[in-house]
Amino acid sequence: MDTRLLGEYIAQCRHIVFFGGAGVSTESGIPDFRSVDGLYNQQYKYPPETILSHSFFIRYPDEFYQYYRDKMLAPDAAPNRAHKALALLERQGKLDAVITQNIDGLHQLAGSKHVLELHGSVHRYFCMSCGGEYGMEAVLADVPVPLCQCGGIIRPDVVLYEESLDGKCMGAAISAIQAADMLIIGGTSLAVYPAAGLVRYYKGDRLVLINKTPTPMDDSCNLVIQGSVGEALGAVVDSQ
């Protein structure tokens, strides 16, 4: 993997933004939803899109949580080279923001401070009745549906199908991309909208895409690296 040009771009820039998807976390053992072996290619009683929808959660919270605990939580997952490299670039004052479609919290665990979580986080929960806030331990309990002290159902602070992305988070992501002198897209097929549409707000000349498979944006990028995000970013920071 030749990362020399990537290293040159990073050395020249001071306002880098990283936009990442599920492929960033596969090296931490978290499955990619849309890869050949990902969750969307496995068979369940209902399709994942149905189970992870707002209407299914409201109607069948017990079945939602059975799937959610089995397939969406990875409490023992650890940051990989991609997460650590991005945190280092932030500490060096070169990276302004991480915009992620992931909900695993691994960027923060690696040390990143400015993380915009477009789809929420499995580390945050709230009561649908009183708004009480909870951590992951609330849903790891051995009960079919976690309940608040007030009796209300506790739900994850994640964006389910049929729900809109948070407007404030989207606005912050757009602002960060518009101000960026370099945009690195990593580990995403750019198939999930409206999140994938954010990249169109970048107007600079250092648009980098790192992904194991081709994407619709490949021809529009200044640099395309077909491979692992962790290997590419890790090689650059290791060579500093």
Structural Rg: 18 Å
The CATH top-level class label of the largest domain = Alpha Beta
Question: End-to-end distance, in Å?
Answer: 17 Å
Please describe the biggest sheet, giving its number of strands, its sense, and whether it closes into a barrel.
Answer: 6 strands, parallel
Instruction: Kindly report the spatial arrangement of strands forming the biggest sheet.
Output: 3-2-1-7-8-9
Shape descriptor reads: elongated
Number of domains: 2
**Topology, number of strands:** 9
Spans where pLDDT lies below 50 across 5 or more residues: none
Mean pLDDT: 92
Q: Find the CATH superfamily of the largest domain.
A: TPP-binding domain
Structural class: alpha/beta
Number of helices: 9
Architecture blueprint of SSEs:
Elements: H1 4-12, E1 16-20, H2 48-51, H3 54-59, H4 61-72, H5 81-91, E2 95-100, H6 106-110, E3 115-117, E4 120-127, E5 133-134, H7 137-140, E6 154-158, H8 167-179, E7 182-186, E8 207-211, E9 223-226, H9 229-238
Parallel strand pairs: 1-2, 1-7, 2-3, 7-8, 8-9
Antiparallel strand pairs: 4-5, 4-6
Helix pairs in contact: 5-9
What does this structure look like?
It is a single chain. This protein has 240 residues and is of the alpha/beta class. The chain is built from nine helices and nine strands. It has two domains: 1-30 and 78-119 and 164-240, Rossmann fold, CATH 3.40.50.1220; 31-73 and 122-158, SIR2/SIRT2 'Small Domain'. Strand 2, helix 6 (106-110) and strand 3 form a beta-alpha-beta unit. Helix 5 (81-91) packs across helix 9 (229-238).
